[in-house]
TrEMBL record:
One Gene Ontology term of the molecular function aspect: zinc ion binding
Keyword Zinc among UniProt keywords: yes
CDD domains: RPA1_DBD_B, RPA1_DBD_C
Family the UniProt entry places it in: Belongs to the replication factor A protein 1 family.
Pfam families: Rep_fac-A_C, REPA_OB_2
PANTHER family noted in UniProt: OS03G0429900 PROTEIN (PTHR47165:SF4)
Protein name in UniProt: Replication protein A subunit
Key word Transmembrane helix present: no
The entry's keywords: DNA-binding, Metal-binding, Zinc, Zinc-finger
Gene3D superfamilies to which the protein is assigned, alphabetical: Nucleic acid-binding proteins (2.40.50.140)
Record-annotated Replication protein A OB domain positions: 19-116
Superkingdom, taxonomy of origin: Eukaryota
Ranges of residues in domain Replication factor A C-terminal: 197-340
């Protein structure tokens, strides 16, 4: 369902449902230069331009327009801004998706539409006419606009807990999503800097036994990878020095299923490995193959609340979706029951 929102509300809407599409009204203040982005899958090029819009909440947001919208609508906006610099150039962005790029931004999809000066349409008249009056007559043009994503672009808060999602710590702890919220329809069209966060109640159902579950790390607490030189020393390329010892740390992938029945592969690290296997990585490394496989199977069907971050990475010329586990906590069934009851009462 389409939801019309003010620019100032985008962060909250995106945090609740990262895959929602929105309609946004605004005044165009800038049209960026044309950029070409090459698809890694087939080498073809896509053109894109960023359009900056503002509204009477005092916020601004950038929207990346793609494909045919660059050739026609962006060119029309650029021409009208040059011809009428003192007039409000109104725009209705329909079926666009909020993203966490630069905190909060918008991106067009194949179904997106751009309507210029929508106050000529009866359905849009009240909102659009109000924006025009505000910008041209009530001092809107002189407003010192603040970016809608200001303060939300960090991956971690000062306390070390995952942020960047527009939620308070309490809201973040109580927020629950499905793996579907982390899916990406067209990875080639998305920025590598874009991140999405989610708390998911899920169960580990499979861990490949033949994968490398751990790596050798420097013993100084930096967790940097080291290479065994074979002579009792270990070289760290990242730190540029050798060590006389090394420690094992977990890093592996696991398939998990959420409470809605959706599944995905999660990248997990040392803390999650110790929680799932009940062993340290050094203890696991010392095990015989059969004992190690039994330990891996013992991690199956363990449930928890996973704090996740979805990122895009380049791999062999293509963009791949990676879902990293930031933390894993045991399920507090009383607390989860209260969250479910609250969701039922709110109709979600």
């Amino acid at each position: 369902a389409m939801v019309g929102v003010n620019i100032s509300d985008l962060a909250v809407k995106m945090a609740k449902n990262p895959r929602m599409l929105v309609d946004v009204f605004g005044v165009v203040t800038e049209v960026g230069a044309v950029r070409s982005v090459k698809r890694k899958s087939d080498g073809s090029e896509l053109q894109t331009r960023e359009v900056t819009i503002v509204d009477d909440t005092g916020k601004s947001v950038n929207c990346a327009l793609w494909g045919e919208l660059v050739d026609k609508e962006c060119a029309e906006m650029e021409a009208e801004l040059a011809a009428k610099p003192d007039s409000a150039l109104l725009v209705a962005l329909r079926h666009v998706r909020p993203t966490s790029w630069n905190g909060v931004s918008l991106s067009s999809l194949s179904k997106s539409k751009v309507v210029l000066n929508p106050d000529v349409l009866v359905a849009d008249c009240a909102r659009a006419s109000g924006l025009r009056r505000w910008y041209e007559q009530d001092g809107g043009k002189q407003t010192a606009f603040v970016a809608a994503g200001e303060g939300l672009s960090g991956a971690l808060t000062a306390g070390g807990s995952p942020g960047g999602d527009g939620l308070t710590p309490e809201q973040r702890a109580n927020d629950r999503k499905s793996f579907d919220a982390l899916k990406v329809d067209n990875p080639e069209d998305r920025s590598l800097a874009e991140k999405e966060y989610a708390n998911v109640r899920a169960t580990v159902v499979y861990i490949k036994p033949d994968q490398n579950l751990m790596y050798l790390a420097a013993p100084d607490g930096s967790n940097k990878k080291v290479v065994d030189n074979g002579d009792g020393s270990f070289w760290c390329e990242g730190l540029g020095k050798s060590f006389t010892s090394a420690t094992n740390r977990f890093i592996f992938s696991a398939k998990a299923v959420d409470s809605f029945g959706s599944e995905t592969w999660l990248n997990m690290f040392n803390a999650e490995g110790e929680a799932l296997f009940g062993k340290t990585a050094d203890e696991m490394a010392a095990m015989e193959k059969e004992d190690r496989e039994r330990c891996i199977k013992g991690a199956f069907w363990q449930s928890g609340v996973f704090r996740l971050c979805r990122q895009l990475r380049e791999w062999q010329g293509e963009r791949k979706v990676r879902v990293n586990t930031l933390s894993m906590s045991k399920i507090d069934y009383a607390a989860e029951s209260r969250l479910l009851l609250a969701a039922i009462k709110s109709g979600c």
